[in-house]
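Please check our next protein.
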Amino acid sequence: MSSRIPKPLRAAARWAIGLALLAVLLARFDLAAVAGALSGVDLWVAIPALSGLVAVHLVAGATWWLLTCQLTGERMPWGRTLRTYYIAQGIGGLTPGNVGSDAYRLLAPETEGGWRRRLGPIAVQRITSSLALAGLGCLALSWLPLRGLAPLVVGSALVLAIGTSAVMLLISRRAPWWRSSDAPAGPGRASGLSRGTLCGLVGGAAFHVASLIFGLLIVAAITPVPSPLQVLACLAVARLAILVPISPSGLGIQEAGLSFLFVAIGMDPAVALAAALLSRAALVATTLLGVVLLAAPGLPPPIRRPSRPPQHHQGGQTAG
């Protein structure tokens, strides 16, 4: 008899852990004060900030599109790319470490080509985005008074760097997803991977920086921000919780970490938790948008790879 835990039970356990952490967190705060802080939110600032956190996935979707063009030669229709990406985010928001997003894009029935061909752009984006976030987390430490966090954040960054480099090496050797997959290994492939890595790092950094700025606006909608750099640093470090494969999208872990960091820089505890909960609302909105797009009818036709122009033979010569 297999000793493995069934997947539905594991998924239920992750949700239970996340909700339990959130319940414990709420129990340790003055809920009336938290509700008061939320009731005083400046909607003229909060609504654009929340909308921005949902819309910022356009940057990540564009990065995926560029990586697919660079590494496989496929030019995905822009509308389909965005729809698929937001559906993937909707699914990813319900899974630990957002792995559901990668799985959906890898196996999406409306895309063409084998999963091995789709693997490269998805893996490169995941790896480079994680590295960009880890780098921002390390940089943020210089603005935080909690020096004891340095070993944890730097250690996490090193683990990410080593682990993702190993994955990058593996997929570059085994997965036939290169544009020049028929050519022998050499400088061409290495150059393609280098360009893809640079594209992923730039796109990932742009996505995370924009997300942090919109997160800062959410805090500003609740309370005056005397030190924007410290708030951005708190958001950057707490955002690393999304990568922790324990609860869906770091549920409970991210709220606890963000509240702790906000209190450490002098923010009122009730306001700190209110800001953390309002930030979670943007993730919920993104998930709901993905679910709506998944249920919506009228999917466009599958992605088509660019085909070579037909060759005509005339008089023994090839006319192109």
Observations:
- The chain has a mean pLDDT of 74.
- Residues 60 and 154 are 25 Å apart (CA to CA).
- The chain is about 70% helix and 0% strand.
- The beta strands are 312-314, 317-319.
